[in-house]
């Protein structure tokens, strides 16, 4: 793998098509300042999520895994004024940093940060019988990805797009005997996507400034 070339091309694309403004740069910086991991999506992936949100004319978005709000900000910027993104984060420190970044972005009216475990919050959303989401981005802990996906389906309608990040894990998904529970979690999801008759799905490999990985994209039938 030519990681150096992938990195250079990633910069080439992001400088042209996904330049970060001060708010996005500050959001990435807040991770270091607050001793949080640098595991946000890249600028190009943020822009990709924004493009997808526009493509499906998303007015209601659900995100699992907020961290500092970097991907949240990219997606929230695609929303109309009346739109809403519900983003779920179980670490209160992360949620608090995200809240500040989202305020700086002027998006507090469009972003609803829920602090809690992804599964618990999805159950609450289901019980509240809210309108289905147009786009769901799954980017929280990997072992329960298949369960998150099944639950996400109950918060969807025909046409809802569901994207799951980090489903290739540097190619480790090829190892049928992996004992890494994150690898096993995404392998379970990927197999389930192939057999689930309620969705049509594929996986895009992702290369660039971050490690080689992949994003699953599914649309609900
Ligand atoms: C990969 S980061 C999210 C990155 C973010 N989507 C971005 O691109 O800017 C994953 C986040 O999920 C959170 N998380 C982990 N397990 C969770 C769970 N069970 N429920 C909700 N959030 C969880 C972590 O604390 C972390 O902040």
Structure commentary:
This protein is of the alpha/beta class. It has a single domain, classed as Rossmann fold. It has eight helices and seven strands; from the N terminus they run H-H-H-E-H-E-H-E-H-E-H-E-H-E-E. Strands 3-2-1-4-5-7-6 form a seven-stranded mixed beta sheet, sandwiched between helices. Helix 3 packs parallel to helix 4, helix 6 packs parallel to helix 7 and helix 7 runs parallel beside helix 8. The longest helix is centred in the N-terminal third of the chain and has 15 residues. The chain is globular, with a radius of gyration of 17 Å. The N and C termini lie far apart (36 Å). The structure holds S-adenosylmethionine (SAM). The site of S-adenosylmethionine has 19 residues, from helix 4 and strand 2. One of its GO terms (molecular function) is O-methyltransferase activity. Keywords: Methyltransferase, S-adenosyl-L-methionine, Transferase. This is Methyltransferase.
């Amino acid at each position: 793998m030519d990681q150096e070339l992938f990195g250079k091309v990633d910069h080439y694309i992001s400088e042209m098509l996904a330049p970060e403004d001060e708010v996005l740069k500050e959001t990435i910086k807040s991770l270091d300042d607050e001793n949080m991991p640098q595991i946000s999506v890249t600028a190009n992936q943020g822009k990709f999520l924004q493009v997808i949100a526009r493509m499906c004319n998303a007015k209601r978005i659900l995100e699992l895994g907020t961290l500092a709000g970097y991907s949240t900000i990219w997606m929230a910027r695609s929303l109309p004024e009346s739109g809403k993104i519900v983003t779920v984060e179980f670490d209160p420190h992360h949620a608090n940093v995200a809240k500040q970044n989202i305020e700086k972005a002027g998006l507090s009216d469009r972003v609803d940060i829920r602090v809690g475990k992804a599964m618990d919050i999805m159950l609450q959303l289901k019980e509240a019988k809210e309108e289905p989401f147009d786009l769901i981005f799954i980017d929280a802990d990997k072992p329960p990805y298949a369960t998150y996906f099944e639950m996400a389906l109950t918060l969807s309608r025909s046409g809802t797009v569901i994207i799951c990040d980090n489903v290739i894990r540097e190619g480790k998904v090829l190892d049928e005997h992996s004992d890494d529970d994150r690898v096993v979690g995404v392998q379970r999801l990927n197999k389930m996507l192939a057999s689930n008759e309620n969705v049509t799905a594929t996986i895009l490999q992702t290369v660039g400034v971050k490690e080689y990985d992949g994003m699953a994209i599914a649309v609900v039938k």
